Amino acid sequence: MKNSQSGMTMVETLIALSIVGVMTSVSVPPMSNFVEASRADSDTVNLFTSLLLARSESVRRNSMVSLCKIDPVSPTFCDNSKGWQAGWIAFVDDDADGVRDAGEEILETSTGMSAQTMVAATNYANSISYLPSGGISSNGSFNICVNGNVANAIVINATGRPRITESVC
């Protein structure tokens, strides 16, 4: 009488585990690139949406609307010591100084981007202000970079229209 055993030998198990390990190591870098690209897109869209809101509200209200950097712990006033990635507020800028004063209405608060995101602004170091016409006083951009690998830019022309483009860190 012959004993029949089913199952895998130790060698077969090690070979199967080796194949799974190689397949996993090959797929991890593309997955991390995908996650970084998704994070960059999400952070870019958040700022882009706030810019569109500020532009449309400036026209609708026929008054200046500004965005400024904030400290997420105290998100009701501008904080120039923080970066744009920490967060921003959009507010009706009654005195047209780019800084939220007591009594100026906050339209939106965004408490920041992911921890791996850095934002470099050209011509908008501390704030950006939309005129009642929806335009701005100078062209500029925001370069949004995740982990130094994946980047998008929001470019704003003199008419105040923002657009998203690919960029480099």
Key terms:
169 residues; alpha+beta; minor pseudopilin epsh fold; four-stranded antiparallel sheet; 1 helix; 9 strands; elongated
Write the layout of secondary structure elements.
Layout lengths: L9 H52 L3 E7 L2 E5 L9 E5 L13 E5 L6 E6 L4 E4 L9 E7 L3 E7 L5 E6 L2
Antiparallel strand pairs: 1-2, 1-3, 1-6, 3-4, 5-7, 7-8, 8-9
Could you say how many structural domains there are in total? 1
Task: Name the CATH homologous superfamily.
Answer: minor pseudopilin epsh domain
Q: N-to-C terminal Cα separation, in Å?
A: 72 Å
Query: What structural class is derived from the secondary structure elements?
Result: alpha+beta
Element string (H = helix, E = strand): HEEEEEEEEE
Which band does the percent of strand residues land in?
25-35%
The CATH first-level class comes to Alpha Beta
Anisotropy-based shape: elongated
The fold-level CATH name is minor pseudopilin epsh fold
Biggest sheet architecture: 5 strands, antiparallel
Question: How many helices?
Answer: 1
How much helix is in the residues?
A: 25-40%
* Computed CA radius of gyration, to the nearest angstrom: 24 Å
- CATH architecture classification: 3-Layer(bab) Sandwich
Weakly predicted, low-confidence segments: none
> Got a strand count?
9
Return the average pLDDT rounded to an integer. Answer: 89
Question: TL;DR of this structure?
Answer:
The chain has one helix spanning 10-61; strands at residues 65-71, 74-78, 88-92, 106-110, 117-122, 127-130, 140-146, 150-156, 162-167. With 169 residues, the protein is an alpha+beta fold.
